[in-house]
Amino acid sequence: MFAKSFTRATRPAQLGIRRYATENSSSRNSNGLLYATGAAALGAGIYYYYSTPKTPLPKADAATKPSGQKTFQGGEQGFLDLKLEKVDTVNSNTKRFRFALPESGDVSGLQIASAILTKYKGPDDEKPTIRPYTPVSDEDSVGYLDLLVKKYKGGPMSTHLHDLQPGELLSFKGPIPKYPLTPNKHNHVALIAGGTGITPMYQLCRAIFNNPEDKTKVTLVFGNVKEEDILLKKEFDELENRYPQRFRAFYILDQPPEKWQGGKGFITKDLLKTVLPEPKEENVQVFVCGPPGMYKAISGPKVSPKDQGELSGILKELGYAKDQVYKF
Question: Which residues are recorded as binding FAD (predicted)?
Answer without folding.
Answer: 131-133, 148, 150, 157-158, 199
